[in-house]
Structure formats: C-alpha cells, structure tokens
C-alpha cells in the first residue's frame, strides 16, 4: 500500500512540474502575441487557460482522493498540501497569461506596444517565463534553496516594473491614456506571474524541510492593487 502511495505522489510531483511548465509556455506565447500582434496565438493562449483549469481540477481531485483513501503523514502529507498550493498558483499564472492575450485582442488592430516600453516588457516577459521554468525544475529536483535564488531573480522583475511606471508617468509619454493603462496592467501581470513562480519554489522548501520559507511580498507601499 505504501508503494502505491509513493507511486501516486511521484506522479503528482511530475504532473505539477508539467503544469508549471505549461504556465510558462502560455506566458511566453501571450508575450509573443502581444509584441507581434498575433491574434491567432492570443486565441490559443485563451483556449489553453480553460484546458489548464480542467487539468488542475483533476490534480486537485487526486489530492483529495489521496487524503481520503491513503491518509498520508509526515512528508507524504506535505506533498499533498504543497500540491494543492501549487495548483492555486498555477491557476492564477494561467489566468495572468490569458489576461495579456485578451489585452492583445482588445488593442486590435493597434496590437503592438509602443517602442518606449517594448524592451522593458520584453525583458519582464522573458524573466517571468524563465522563473516559471526554474520553479518547475525545483519541483522535479526538490531543491529547498531554489526559492531564495528565484527571489533574487525576481528582484530584477520588480526593478523593471518600477522602470515601466517611470516611463508611463514621464512628461514625454505621448501614447495616450488607454495604452498607458494597458501597459500598466501588462507589467503588473508579469510581476504577479513572477511572484507566483517564486512562491511555488518556496513551497518546495516546505516540502523538503518541513519549514516555511519567508513569503513573497504580495503588495508593497504605493503599488498598483492586485486582483489575482
């Protein structure tokens, strides 16, 4: 019976890593759609959000089944608890990628972002996707220190987010209020996506050590409110 439980938990860990990588791919595709004005790719990301939610619901149901039928304890129980936490983070990451894809559609036919913010958003998107890839690798390797390394990388995302707002509030911004609002939302989505990736890596710390790592700050003074 214990062998069956461990096989189920190993499969659960593998599925979690796969879903985090899927979220990374969604964000990468949403960013490509944004910068290239690719409505077909944006539509694909939007469709994948529904598919991702269905897959995550399946993982959550498996977790409940394991709790009910296997009664895991100690580290085995932590695997299930972490899995449920990661499911929530991935669900929000997929939603954030979907939001960027929706902004691409809303801006059609003027889908491309302005030149002044393009390099900032491009770097934020690259970092966000890479952080998710790193979080998936942390799950696979069960690396308790990965959360701290990702938090350092996330500092660059936060710095870029501040840089983005400096551009939007500069006196020489000439692209209008609507594009400023959309750009601010896109930047916020990248920042939140990266935060979720770091939080997933910190869950791995709890899984491997049984101790909670310090959480990622969700809101800072003066920041734009977050609804995800």
Could you please describe the fold and organization of this structure?
This protein has 228 residues and is mainly alpha-helical. Helix 1 packs antiparallel against helix 4. It has a single domain, classed as Phosphate transport system protein phou homolog 2, domain 2 (Methane Monooxygenase Hydroxylase, Chain G, domain 1, Up-down Bundle). Helix content is 79%, strand content 0%. The C terminus is likely disordered. The longest helix is centred in the N-terminal third of the chain and has 35 residues. The protein starts with a helix and ends in a 19-residue tail after the last helix.
Question: Strands, helices and their partners?
Answer:
Elements: H1 2-36, H2 39-70, H3 74-106, H4 118-141, H5 146-168, H6 176-209
Helix pairs in contact: 1-2, 1-3, 1-4, 2-3, 3-6, 4-5, 4-6, 5-6
